[in-house]
Amino acid sequence: MSRLFLVLKRGLLNLISDTTKEHIRVFADDVVESSEVTTGVTRIGDYELHDLVLLDEAFQVLKGVPDRPEVVLVRLGEIKCKIEKKISVQDRFKNTVSSKDVVRILEGPCKGKQGPVEHIYRGIFFIFDRHHLEHAGFICAKANHV
């Protein structure tokens, strides 16, 4: 995971990347939030950034409060396998939805958001919305909510 450290002085931001150690100075008014992913290392072993994976049995599922998500680092050895994208599921109108199909969320906390389906697992769509700033732009929705 790459991080960017910010220092604000007199309307100027000094940005320092922990991966490249690069220093950048910009006007604070020119900076906007984004869910876009920076370039850099996007592949480790057989896995790419944003692959949906299953964790091995030794890994415990964490239950937390939705308002305070908990992030956990996972070692490569704790990944069991990658979930393939060749799955299709029916939405609430009995239309077949596959990966890369664009859907709109009709129900739930993300109602009205839309984007392409990147992954499907157990009736849950993992939808990418580049305007959604949390979770690298990914939104989860039940198949019967789109």
TrEMBL record:
Domain Spt5 KOW as annotated: residue spans: 90-143
GO MF, one annotated term: mRNA binding
A cellular component annotation (GO) from this entry: DSIF complex
Pfam families noted in UniProt: KOW4_SPT5
Cross-referenced InterPro entries: KOW_Spt5_4, SPT5
TM regions (residue ranges): none
GO BP annotations, alphabetical order: regulation of DNA-templated transcription elongation; regulation of transcription by RNA polymerase II; transcription elongation by RNA polymerase II
Domain of life: Eukaryota
PANTHER family: SUPPRESSOR OF TY 5, TRANSCRIPTION ELONGATION FACTOR SPT5
Protein name: Spt5 KOW domain-containing protein
UniProt organism field: Canavalia gladiata (Sword bean)
